[in-house]
């Protein structure tokens, strides 16, 4: 054990090849005490070191089931929080770069969600008639809020089942922070657009009339993903004009208009599975993050499949991109030296309340 943690400065200027070798050596030395979980949006140089990869739901389950002492989460902050909440108290969740957040998750916070709940109470009794549903892309204290109000968590792959669970209990849903996942899922369940209203958290009572709130089945938080907002229906029209037989697959964080023009809609894991299992020589237009799309194209091109990114502009998730081989080498070599750096630790009372909603979710799907 070194006396002090090794500072990141020692790694900042290392080249990727050197980090690569050091990551492999550190993993070997840790000999199963550490598991690396990698989200599908991670860059190639990091993704290749993951022991397991997946979408948010799959990675949550893996974190809950892992026996490893250290869970190094190559993803974003809310994912490492979920790993901390679902793992045993003696396990340690680590986020290689603490600045890897999620801009959508930041669009809802406890203060503005509690204010929303109070303002809803001016019109109806939310604890009797509204189930709060938070997308997993949210801070732990919002999951705890849902725990306190008999709500639940969902991911992009189970949103419909979670909404069904919610409507079986109460007549309305408050869905945050992603309006698009809420709207796309609600519409697929047969809820008309005019019964899904947007709560603008910058305005008094969400900018909604009493009547609109009373009539709504789903109150959608005005949040969105900065990556998925870059896809437009015109991109699909242009592509289809060139390749009429092409298939379109989109992540449900994309807009309603994009999802309406898509042949398939689903989580990152679903997108990969659908394209991998598709017949040879098919052509795909994909609305999700660029690293995933590029890797998928490379993987299936030998089957004659073509996978295209939907937007003409490069749109990577800049926060997912923050996790680089330098940070991964830094956290692993510190573990080898007996130091934990960048531990993500959710305060106990918040973790307990948040865990109840995550357990509910894992039991429903
Ligand atoms: P998935 O759960 O589909 O991997 O989505 C996570 C995410 O952040 C998409 O932007
Ligand atoms: Fe958040 Fe969007 Fe990045 Fe997913 S792609 S982590 S929703 S900012």
Describe this structure in words.
The protein starts with 8 loop residues before the first helix and ends with a helix. The mean pLDDT is 97. It has three domains: 8-100 and 319-346, 3-Layer(aba) Sandwich (Rossmann fold), CATH 3.40.50.10800; 105-225, Rossmann fold; 228-309, Rossmann fold (3-Layer(aba) Sandwich). By secondary structure, the protein is α/β, with parallel strands linked by helices. The chain has a five-stranded parallel beta sheet with strand order 6-5-7-9-8, sandwiched between helices. Strands 2-1-3-4 form a four-stranded parallel beta sheet, sandwiched between helices. It has a four-stranded parallel beta sheet with strand order 11-10-12-13. Helices cover 43% and strands 15% of the residues. The chain binds 1,3-dihydroxyacetonephosphate and iron/sulfur cluster. 1,3-dihydroxyacetonephosphate (13P) binds at residues 40, 55-56, 137, 155-156, 225, 251, 253, 267-268.
Q: From the coordinates shown, what is the CATH architecture of the largest domain? A: 3-Layer(aba) Sandwich
Spatial strand arrangement across the major sheet: 6-5-7-9-8
The proportion of residues in beta strands is 5-15%
The N- to C-terminal Cα distance equals 43 Å
Radius of gyration: 21 Å
Q: What is the fold named in CATH at topology level of the largest domain?
A: Rossmann fold
Q: Which consecutive residue ranges, at least 5 long each, have pLDDT under 50?
A: none
Number of strands: 13
The CATH C-level class name of the largest domain: Alpha Beta
Which structural class is indicated by helix and strand composition?
A: alpha/beta
Total count of domains: 3
- Run of helices and strands: HHEHEHEHEHHEHEHEHEHEHEHEHEHEHH
